[in-house]
Structure formats: structure tokens, C-alpha cells
Amino acid sequence: MTRAGQTSPKALRGTAALLLLLTCADALHHGISAPLVAAAFAAVIAVGERVRVTLPGDREQAPIGTAVALAYALLGPLHGLPTTHGVSQVVAVAGIGTLAGLAPLRSRRRHRRCRPEPGRVDGAVRRLLTVGFAALLFQPLYNSGALDQLPLAGPAYGVFLTGVAALAALCDATLAAVQRRARNGLRFAAALEDELRSLLGIGSAIVATGMLISLLAGEVGLWALPLFCAPLLLAQAAFRRAAAVRATTGQTIETLARATEVAGYTPPGHARRVADTACALGRELGLGSRDLALLEYAALMHDIGQLSLVEPVPDGATALLPQPEQQRIARLGSEVISRTGVPGQVAGQVARLADPCHGPDGCADRTLPLAARIIRVANAFDDLSAAARRRGLTEQAGRQEVFELLRAERGRLYDPGVLDALARSATVVVRPD
User: Fold this and answer.
1) Which of these, 137, 167, 288, 323, could form a disulfide with 194 (CB 3.0-4.6 Å)?
2) Would you say residue 329 lies in a domain?
3) Quick check: 110 pLDDT over 50?
4) How much is the pLDDT for 374?
5) What is the rounded average pLDDT of the residues 92-106?
6) pLDDT on residue 430
7) Are residues 201 and 235 in the same domain?
8) What is the DSSP letter of 105?
9) Membrane-crossing residues (predicted)?
């Protein structure tokens, strides 16, 4: 991870903290506009922070808190009367509500207060900066009367709010990509693609709810908060249930992957080491979180076909077998995986992981999945490293020998791009069984 990647989260936290301090001071200096309304929005934001949901890819989301904070940033008239709160009060209210939701809870077991996890803090920082950005786009235009001079009556006003909300969503996706790049080592383009894709899910529900609350508050006042937060709470419960299903799938795959170790077909920890190496290579090659999850599943289960063998492969090292035997084991494993309910792409990746990189005509096989090429290199790396350790070679000597053996088959058995990624990756080391 680069130094810039390490400092980005700290810079964002510092910016958010400074922004919150300045806006709170400004709001106190000029007085709180409609304090009861501000308190109501802050209270719902705090509740929303308490009922966060973790989405695939370890994304922390606070749908209710984010939607309500966005609604406050885009709030124009309230119950038919114009509001006068500005950017500073929006950021202050959102920040105070977020801090109240992040306030550490007392541990039941140890009877002490627990600090919020870094991921929760980063999510709160991102949401605060996004709300501040949305308020900066809307509040000055509304409070100055500039919107009254524009033809924004009726549907046009809704279109304007949609544009502001869309820009705020893009801001949130960009900040989330910066944070994920620093935390997980993903390339920024891949992280941004993942975040933009997530907008089609719960992100669109958050933006739509925030807009509806701000629009309907002009007619029904604060009743818009419970009226539109309830459906979002139900949607959040559905997303949480889906996340639980994915977690169960992951646990099932982990258990199946250990079957070859328990049966004595592969060395202890082999599947996990191959999966870790494959994911490191996938990140180096720019895969997004969804592709990385499928890659991890396939890497964990890449040796499941060995269970159909009468005699175990010596030391479980399939990389040392003849090519046809490797392909046969891969096909057998794919058939087993296809009957487990695992996503179909995983079975397809395992089926092709022993295929050569070039077709019979000598041209690169473009139908060979990148995941299959990655797993083949990761598996060979672990098998050859284990063989080097059994011969008593030091880590440095073993690593050098492994890379020489892999480069000898560069372009024929092993993809050149994946080998280059292996050489660049600092997270791949020769580890003991």
C-alpha cells in the first residue's frame, strides 16, 4: 500500500472533524434556526447510525441516517413555510446526530465502553462530507432566493433535487472508493466501479428516500420522517437478510474446502493459502469486490475434485501432475461444485483452471477465465513452495527457485500477466504449512 493510500483516510477524517467544528461554531454564533426541527432530524440520524447494515464487500451503510441527513440538506419549505437553516447548520446537525449514533456502548461482558471500529468511523466521515457537499449545492441557492428566480416550479423542482442528489451520490461513491483503496488495496478504478454498481441497490433507495422526505416535508412537515423511513427500514432488513445468506454461503464453502484436508488429500491450510494468494493477485490485477469474492470461492474449492481419486496425490501437489490429470481433477471438482448451490461462475472457473493459456493454434485462449489463470498460478506457487520447504531450502532460496520454475512455463501453462502480478505483490510470501 502506498503512503498516499495510508494518509487518505486520515486526511478525510481530519477534514470532517475540522468541518464539523467550524460549522458547529458558526451555527452557535448565529443561532440555531428552528431548533425543534433540527433536533428531530438529529435524533433520527442518530437512530439511523445505530441500525447500520453491513453489505457485501464489507460496506458499512446507515440507510436511514444517510437518507434523513440528505433530506435535511435538501430541505426547502417545511409545512408550507420557508426554512432558513444553511450549510453550517446542516453539517452541524448531521454531525451531532452521527456522533450520537456512534457513541460507544457499554460492553455487557466487561462493563466498559467500547470504541467504534475504524470502518464505522470512515463510513460516518464519508456520510458527513457527502451531506455537506449536498447542502453546499442546494442551501445557498435556496436561502438567497435564486431558486425563486428560476423556472423551477412543480416537476422542475423535483428534477433539480434529483440532479443535486445524483451529484451527492457520486461524491459519496468517490469518497468510498478512496477509503476502500486505502483499506483493501483495490485499485481506485475497480473500487469506484464497485461503489457505482452498489448505487443501483440500496444506494438508490437512500437517495430516493432523502428526496421524498425533503419534498413531502413541505406539505406534511416532520410527519414525512416516520412516513418514509419505515419503508427504508424494511428494505434495510431485506438487505441484511441477503447479507446473512451470503455469509452462510461463504461459511459453507470454507467447510467444503477443508474436506480435502480432513481426508488427507491436501496439506493443512493449503486451500486458504491459495485463496489468499489468488485474492492478492486479483487485487493487483484490478478485480472488483464481486469478482474477488467469486475468485476466493473458486480458489478455496479448487482441489475438491481430489476427493474422487482412489489414491491421494503425493503431498496434494496437483501442480506437479501431468496436464491431462490436472484437467481431469479440475473437471471432477467442477461437477461437485455445480451441485452445491454455489454461484455457477465458480464451477466454470474451477473447470478451466488446468487448461493451457494458448489454444491448439498457438494463439492466446481468450475464453479462459482470468480467475482460472490466477488460481493456477496461486496453486502452483503454494505447491512448489511446499516442495522447496520439504527439501530444506531457506525462504529466499525457495522463493527464487519457485519463480524460476514458474517462469520456465511462462505463456504456456501460466499467464504472463498473472506471473508479473505475483512478482509485484508484496503480500505473497512463502509460508509454512
Assistant:
1) 288
2) yes
3) no
4) 94
5) 83
6) 44
7) yes
8) P
9) 86-103, 124-142, 154-178, 199-217
